[in-house]
């Protein structure tokens, strides 16, 4: 097997494995190194996203949603469920099967595209513009070379300084996805994306969930109107969310964990939980890469420094995904991976940071692209807004899921769409229309004039676009 490659990718998450496949498609001899191990110490490419992120979290969200529907919503349809129970072990086994299908799928794609896979940790040995030596430390140790290196080593969960993850009582995303019995009382520190998704899973299965958030505003990055609606709906579902708290001591006992904190009124509080999820953001991962030894520049927060093209401080070394600036999202990592492979080939790969969609997979889902209303106000941009509630959408009524709305923000003069915000059923799917529209720099009127199937949730998108011009038809 040749050990000299045109392109060596370090990290096999969404940024890395996609970069490797695209590089191979473009005719480069390509290697991808990933160190993730499955329970049998075998390779498990796919990174955080596949192993302890996007995929397993969505599997648990689906299982818990079915359980909740069977318990509460089916009665409406005349479906009677007796003796409902939750087999957590089976739910976790299903999740593991889905993860393995994805791991195996990536190994198959590597074979199909002739990407050489190395299982182990990759680290820089030496190199310059002519090429780099990379040591791969796995079951055996070997050295390979690459003319171009793409670093895609991802991120790790951030721990609180006084509460290391033990994954038994104090859980990162890894432990939160593997809780083997429904905790009676579940604490969550951080009301961000992971806190809300994981909090929702265990609340649906019967946990009493308390979410403690440092900031005074709920979901500060989300459009305020949508965040307000989400806060109301989550509180109604039973998520106890406390904002503006200051976390003090965290003490793990034998079977529970005690959190002392100050609430938003300055009162000292104490809560005891069976499990505690700490989801306060993630930090870039350059552990074991020998970045310092090779002179690869990191910024003050530990991210690999890159320019707009994902070029690092070293010639022919590129970096993509969570380990560089920008949103920590799988699809952002993938887009950067593709763009870098194309740039290596002399093409004009591009990533439009203005049209990267966000989705929070709670129920209802929250999805958005572009600017929020508060951002437009702060930037002094004159805009028009239009909203349409799912309550007035026939398909949403038939589904029995009428919470939320679609909101359009368009330039006051040109009518160009500046942002679209959705809270409601299948928001994760509906947002794609808005992304396409913004990528083509469409106006709200363009969407308003497009024929949308009836009855469909997407009619709410059309109606919100019509509402920008105050002429929605069904509300
Ligand atoms: P990673 O996926 O972290 O992959 C990096 C890989 O590199 C890992 O396999 C790691 O083992 C390997 N590696 C690191 N260093 C080395 C080395 N020196 N040698 C060899 N291998 C190495 N994003 C979404 O867009 N949608 C979601 O629904 C979503 N859900 C999430 C849910 C959770 C619970 C979490 C934690 C994250 C979620 N994310 C989601 C974020 C998403 O997982 C990340 O943005 C994405 O995985 C980043 O991809 P990456 O390729 O940059 O890094
Ligand atoms: P996050 O950044 O989404 O949320 C962290 C929250 O913790 C913030 O609200 C922050 O104010 C709060 N916080 C920080 N320090 C705190 C403290 N000391 N005490 C109390 N609260 C504190 O980070 P999260 O949820 O850990 O997720 C990490 C990243 O993973 C996300 O930002 C996102 O990029 C990605 N992700 C994406 C998902 C998706 O796309 N659906 C799902 C899950 C994760």
What is the number of beta strands? 21
The CATH homologous superfamily of the largest domain: FAD/NAD(P)-binding domain
Largest sheet, described in full? 5 strands, mixed, barrel
Shape: globular
Span between N and C termini? 65 Å
Structural class: alpha/beta
Helix content: 25-40%
Q: Mean pLDDT, nearest integer? A: 97
What ligand molecules are bound, each kind once? flavin-adenine dinucleotide, 1,4-dihydronicotinamide adenine dinucleotide
SS field, number of helical segments:
14
Number of domains: 3
> Percent of residues in beta strands?
25-35%
CATH class of the largest domain: Alpha Beta
Strand order of the largest sheet: 1-2-3-4-5
Please identify, by name, the CATH architecture of the largest domain.
3-Layer(bba) Sandwich
**Uncertain ranges:** none
List keywords for this structure.
FAD/NAD(P)-binding domain, Enolase-like, domain 1, single chain, 14 helices, five-stranded parallel beta sheet, binds flavin-adenine dinucleotide, 475 residues, alpha/beta, 32% helix, 3 domains
Question: What is this structure, in a nutshell?
Answer:
This protein is α/β, with parallel strands linked by helices.
Would you spell out the secondary-structure blueprint of this structure?
Layout: E1 4-10, H1 14-25, E2 30-34, H2 47-52, H3 54-73, H4 88-112, E3 115-128, E4 131-138, E5 141-151, E6 155-157, E7 170-171, H5 173-176, E8 185-189, H6 193-204, E9 208-212, H7 224-237, E10 240-242, E11 246-252, E12 257-262, E13 268-273, E14 275-278, E15 282-284, H8 291-294, E16 317-319, H9 330-344, E17 358-360, E18 365-370, H10 373-378, E19 383-389, H11 394-399, E20 405-411, E21 417-424, H12 427-439, H13 444-448, H14 458-468
Parallel strand pairs: 1-2, 1-5, 2-3, 5-16, 7-14, 8-9, 8-14, 9-10
Antiparallel strand pairs: 3-4, 4-5, 6-15, 11-12, 12-13, 17-18, 18-21, 19-20, 20-21
Helix pairs in contact: 1-9, 3-4, 3-6
Bound molecules: flavin-adenine dinucleotide (FAD) and 1,4-dihydronicotinamide adenine dinucleotide.
Flavin-adenine dinucleotide (FAD) binds at residues 10-16, 33-36, 47-49, 53-54, 57, 121-123, 152-155, 173, 194, 285, 288-289, 321-323, 328-331, 333, 361.
Family: Belongs to the class-I pyridine nucleotide-disulfide oxidoreductase family.
Main location: cytoplasm
Binding site for NAD(+): 190-197, 213, 281
């Amino acid at each position: 097997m040749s050990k000299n490659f045109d392109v060596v990718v370090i990290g096999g998450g969404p940024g890395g494995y996609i970069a490797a496949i695209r590089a191979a498609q473009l005719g480069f001899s390509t290697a991808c190194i990933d160190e993730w191990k499955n329970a049998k110490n075998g390779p498990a490419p796919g990174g955080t996203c596949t192993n302890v992120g996007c995929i397993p979290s969505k599997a648990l969200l689906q299982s818990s949603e079915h359980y909740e529907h069977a318990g509460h919503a089916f009665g409406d349809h005349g479906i009677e469920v007796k003796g409902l129970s939750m087999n957590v072990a089976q739910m976790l086994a299903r999740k593991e099967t889905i993860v393995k299908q994805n791991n195996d799928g990536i190994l198959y794609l590597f074979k199909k595209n002739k990407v050489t896979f190395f299982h182990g940790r990759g680290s820089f040995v030496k190199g310059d513009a002519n090429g780099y030596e990379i040591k791969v430390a796995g079951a055996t140790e070997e050295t390979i070379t690459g003319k171009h290196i793409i670093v895609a080593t991802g991120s790790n969960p951030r721990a609180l300084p006084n509460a290391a993850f033990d994954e038994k009582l104090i859980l990162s995303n890894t432990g939160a996805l593997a809780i083997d019995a429904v905790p009676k009382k579940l604490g969550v520190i951080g009301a961000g994306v992971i806190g809300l998704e994981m909090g929702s899973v265990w609340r649906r299965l019967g946990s009493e969930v308390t979410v403690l958030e440092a900031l005074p505003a709920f979901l500060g990055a989300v459009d305020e109107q949508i965040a307000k609606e989400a806060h109301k709906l989550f509180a109604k579902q039973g998520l106890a969310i406390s904002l503006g708290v200051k976390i003090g001591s965290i003490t793990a006992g034998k079977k529970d964990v005690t959190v002392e904190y100050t609430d938003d009124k300055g009162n000292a509080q104490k809560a005891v939980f069976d499990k505690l999820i700490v989801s306060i953001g993630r930090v870039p991962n350059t552990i074991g890469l020998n970045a310092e030894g090779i002179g690869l520049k990191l910024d003050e927060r530990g991210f690999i420094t890159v320019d707009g093209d994902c070029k690092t401080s070293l010639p022919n070394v590129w970096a993509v995904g969570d380990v560089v600036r920008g949103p920590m999202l799988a699809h952002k990592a993938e887009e950067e991976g593709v763009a870098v492979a194309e740039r290596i080939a002399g093409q004009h790969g591009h990533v439009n940071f203005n049209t990267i969609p966000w989705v929070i997979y709670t129920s209802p889902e929250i999805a958005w692209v572009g600017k929020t209303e508060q951002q437009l106000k702060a930037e002094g941009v004159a805009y028009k807004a239009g909203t349409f509630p799912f309550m007035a959408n026939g398909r949403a009524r038939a589904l029995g899921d009428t919470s939320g709305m679609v909101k359009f923000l368009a330039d006051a003069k040109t009518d160009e769409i500046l942002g679209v915000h959705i809270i409601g059923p299948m928001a994760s799917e509906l947002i794609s229309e808005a992304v396409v529209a913004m990528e083509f720099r469409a106006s709200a009127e363009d969407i308003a004039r497009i024929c949308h199937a009836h009855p469909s949730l997407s009619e709410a998108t059309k109606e919100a676009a019509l509402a920008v011009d105050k002429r929605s038809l069904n509300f």
